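From the methods appendix. Each design record in this collection lists the tokenized structure first, followed by the designed amino acid sequence. Records were kept in a plain field format so they could be parsed without special tools. The example shown here is representative of the layout used throughout.

RECORD:
FOLD TOKENS (188 positions):
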């Protein structure tokens, strides 16, 4: 076996280990959000649908991983925790993997399609004033984004370098507790 072939196998082994760590992190996020009264929006879905087409090899592997949540106590809101490692549409570039928390407020009576929720969980990379130091960014997508739906009223996100969320306690304090607190503050 050539050195290149061995490196490819090693890279996929490393990717598999990373995905197991991500699953653990997102499971911890689920537990923390559940304690705060939020339930998963979709059962166990944790990534975008990707592509199996020969025409879209850049979409063969997932570029972002997420959990979306809803709460009967907070109608009209979908909250999310996402880990983003790139942009499959290549609209934005990232220098490092990031973890984000955020939420979308949608119009009463609207039925957001799954496609919108799949996309909105990576909204942090579209924010014009975004950074990865935890700054809260909010926008009205109807005014600031080219492609949107009238169902979306506002989108708010904050993000950190994935390296800054190295433990379950970091996840709890920097992402989950903050996410619930920011949603509550925005609704008051």
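DESIGN:
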């Amino acid at each position: 076996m050539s050195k290149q072939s061995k490196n490819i196998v090693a890279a996929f082994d490393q990717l598999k280990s990373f995905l197991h760590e991500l699953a653990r992190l997102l499971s911890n996020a689920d537990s923390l959000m559940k304690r705060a009264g939020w339930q998963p929006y979709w059962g166990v879905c944790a990534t975008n649908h990707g592509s199996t087409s020969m025409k879209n090899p850049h979409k063969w592997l997932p570029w972002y991983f997420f959990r979306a949540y809803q709460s009967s106590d907070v109608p009209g809101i979908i909250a999310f925790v996402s880990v983003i490692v790139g942009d499959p549409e290549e609209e934005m570039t990232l220098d490092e993997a990031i973890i984000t928390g955020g939420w979308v407020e949608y119009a009463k009576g609207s039925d957001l399609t799954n496609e919108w929720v799949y996309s909105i969980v990576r909204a942090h990379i579209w924010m014009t004033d975004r950074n990865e130091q935890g700054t809260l960014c909010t926008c009205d997508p109807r005014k600031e984004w080219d492609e949107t739906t009238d169902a979306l009223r506002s989108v708010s996100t904050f993000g950190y370098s994935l390296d800054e969320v190295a433990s379950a306690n970091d996840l709890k304090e920097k992402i989950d507790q903050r996410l619930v607190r920011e949603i509550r503050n925005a609704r008051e």
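APPENDIX NOTE: The chain has one domain: 3-187.
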